[in-house]
Amino acid sequence: MPKKKRVVLAVHGGAGIILRSALTSEMEAAYRSALQDALTAGYAVLTRNRDDATKNTSDQDDVAIDAVEAAVRCLEDCPLFNAGKGSVLAHDEQIRCDASIMSCSFDRAASGNLDASSNKSEHDNTTSGNERIQSCHQIIQKRRYPKTPLPRAGSVAAVSNIQNPISLAKAVMERTPHVMLIGRGAEDFARQLPKEAGVQFQPDGYFWTERRWQQLVRVRESEAEEQKKKRKQQVMKVQLDHSSTSSQQDRSSDILCDKKFGTVGCIALFRPDSNDNTYQLASATSTGGMTNQRYHRVGDSPIIGSGTYANHLCAISCTGHGEWFIRCVAAHDIAKRLEYKHGYDETSCATDNALLRKALEEVVFGTLMSESDDGEQGGAGGAIILDKDGNFAADMNCPGMYHGWIYEDGEIETSIFWDE
Question: What is the rounded CA–CA span in Å between residue 337 and residue 355?
Answer without folding.
Answer: 9
